Amino acid sequence: MSDRDAILFANGAFYLAFTNRDLEAMAEVWSVHKSVSCVHPGWSILYGLDHVMRSWQGILRNPNAPKVKVHNERVEVLGDSAIVTCVEELKGQQFLAATNIFVREGSAWRLVHHQAGPANVDPQSLGPPEDERPRGPVN
Amino acid sequence: MSDRDAILFANGAFYLAFTNRDLEAMAEVWSVHKSVSCVHPGWSILYGLDHVMRSWQGILRNPNAPKVKVHNERVEVLGDSAIVTCVEELKGQQFLAATNIFVREGSAWRLVHHQAGPANVDPQSLGPPEDERPRGPVN
Hints:
The structure is a homodimer.
Chain A (H helix, E strand, L loop, with lengths): L2 H17 L3 H7 L7 E3 L6 E2 L1 H12 L8 E10 L2 E10 L3 E12 L2 E11 L21
Parallel strand pairs in A: 1-6
Antiparallel strand pairs in A: 1-2, 3-4, 4-5, 5-6
Helix pairs in contact in A: 1-2
C-alpha cells in the first residue's frame, strides 16, 4: 500500500469511528507517542490524549451527535507526517472544512491533530462521499 | 536557534505580515516547494500558492481587515515538519483557533497549511500576545 493510500485509510478510519460512534475505534486512530490536539467547531483547542478522548466520548455518546460524510480528501505527504484536508458534510448540507495531521508510527499512520470549522462549500464541488464510492473490481 | 524557536519565529513572521498588511512578507512565509492550502474562517479550502496568495491579497488590501494578536502558541515538532496551534484575537475579543503547519526548507521553516475558525476561548486562559511579551534582558 502506498503512503498516500495508507494515510487515506487512516483518515477513513477516523470518520468511520465518528459515524459508528465507536469510541474504541476512535482511540485507535490517535497517536499515543506524540502530543495530540483537537479543535472541534467552535470549541477551544484541546491538548493531550486524555482531554481529546474525553471530548470524543462526549460527542460519540450523544445521540444527537451528527453523522458525518467526508468528501474531497487531499493528501500532502511530508516525509513521516502528512496533512489531509477534506470537507465534512453534516445533515442538512452543513459543511465543515477539516485539517487532519497524521504521523507514521511503525506500519500505521496515526492522527496527531484535527481541526474542523464551518466552511462555505458549493455542493457542486463535492465528489461522492467516501462511503459511497465504487471500490473497484470485486473479482 | 533551536527548531522550536525557528518555528515560532516563522509563525511570528506570518502574523506580522498579516498585521502589517505586508503582502511581500506574506509571500515569503509560504512554501514554494510543497502544495500549500489555506482555510480562512468560513471559506472553502484553497489549494495552491496562487489561490492562497490571491486570497491574502484580498484580505491584506482590505482596509477593514482585522488586526490579529496571537496568543498561546504551542509547537509540536514532527521531524522536518511541525504543527503550531494558537489563538488569534481579533478586535472586540473575538477569538479564532488556528492550525499552522510548517516544513523545514533549508535553514528556514515555511508554512504549508493554515486553518483558522471561530473558537470559544476564555480570555483568562490567554497569555500576553506575541508582540507584547518581554524580549528578555536588553543587555
